[in-house]
Hints:
The structure is a homodimer.
Chain A: H1 27-36, E1 37-42, E2 47-49, E3 57-63, E4 66-71, E5 77-83, E6 88-89, H2 92-96, E7 103-106, E8 110-116, H3 117-126, H4 128-154, H5 157-172, E9 177-178, H6 181-188, H7 192-204, E10 208-211, E11 214-217, H8 220-227
Helix pairs in contact in A: 3-4, 5-8, 6-7
Chain A binds a DNA duplex through residues 156-158, 180-182, 190-194, 196-197, 200, 212-213.
Amino acid sequence: MLEKSHKHVTCATCSARKNSLFGTYGESEVIDLNHEKMCNYYKKNQPLFVEGSFPRGVFCLNQGKVKVFTRGDEGKEQIIHIAKAGDVIGFRSMFSGEPYKVSASTLEESNICFIGKDDFLLMMESNPILRNGIIKELSKELGDRAQFITNMAQKSVRERLAFSLLILEEIYGEEEINLTREDMANFVGTATETLIRLLKDFKEDEIIEIHTRKLQIVNREKLLRIAGR
Amino acid sequence: MLEKSHKHVTCATCSARKNSLFGTYGESEVIDLNHEKMCNYYKKNQPLFVEGSFPRGVFCLNQGKVKVFTRGDEGKEQIIHIAKAGDVIGFRSMFSGEPYKVSASTLEESNICFIGKDDFLLMMESNPILRNGIIKELSKELGDRAQFITNMAQKSVRERLAFSLLILEEIYGEEEINLTREDMANFVGTATETLIRLLKDFKEDEIIEIHTRKLQIVNREKLLRIAGR
DNA sequence: CTTAAAACATGACCATTATCAGTTTTAAGT
DNA sequence: ACTTAAAACTGATAATGGTCATGTTTTAAG
């Protein structure tokens, strides 16, 4: 449970900032940054932005998890990415000039700061390190998505689930993986029923432990083997 | 058939340049660009770069088509993107510092210019318009790939083929679509046999015309309906 | 503490699509 | 023009995984 006090975050003491795009900022830049951002508390399942709308700024996660997803023709979500503390999201469309092609919602209660479009673009113009960090980030994600596409096209659901669990483990770190079955299915790209059956298999094979909603990997080796490489 | 003379291209008269990243270049910049680039003729199926290696520069297509692909665990290709004249490819990994996550090979005989890494990065530093163009391009592709992932996860092969044919039509423009069945299958993300059967269906439904290797869309409306949206 | 709704789970069924094993056609090189 | 290899195609078969129907558990709200 997040304290209400968490609502007010200062960039100088923000532990998430260290491994964020703003991790290299010096003292005076942090003060400026802190001045420009607004911080908000979000409940579970609150939208940050929605596919089709135009961006007004970027979101910087201080605490919590956010799913980034698109909807297919039948409205089913496909989760593209799960953002965690320190991640900055929503800048893609600001550069392309297009409306958002993805939506983003909190997966749990979160503290998230907002930096307006103009402020952010100005920072980018004047700060080559930030700029290069963003270019690097865009490029890295582009590579990840190429692999994501290939996995979707060529791996079985079982293999994709193994792969996804390994990614989720990285995202959740010390915490247990905590997603609804539906969200996990939408990340793996399968039907909820299929996902539930496969989780049961993995549990019986002693690859994972299931604690109702939460989930823990107990045999990473096996998962790696199933995921293929 | 490309003339041997096509091998030597000057940026000033390069028709592909107009709608490329360098489209906004002024006269003196074009002269510099021309000085920095090297132009080469490629036969069909020649690699430009290979997954896992490190980039030495970027490739600018003057004429021809190039497939950008990754290989899955069993070595099967998944085509992520097909580049045409005017497209600049291979810059992603230069920014991320990682090795290439994709490979690129010519699909037909092509004239392709090369700009060395240092020259290119220098141009980027000194030219905000180029820089912003690249950021925009990266962002746009990121959006496209989110949709690609969703299509892979949620659409049937039939729907994906329809979708892919519409994309291929844009890429090939006036020319007829000209890909081996295997390449097309690797773009759609399916088995070659399945692709062949579906093409036959589409032909019988008078959606496409097949001229041995080449292929033409005759009913775009139907394709749009099948592709969904 | 109760109750309704959401999430989770399981079974039965079948359509889609991959795989394998071939044959025919096309293209490329000598 | 002839030879050969690669590409295109066809058919049969099987399994993966989606859908629907239904029951159970968990969670959240009053």
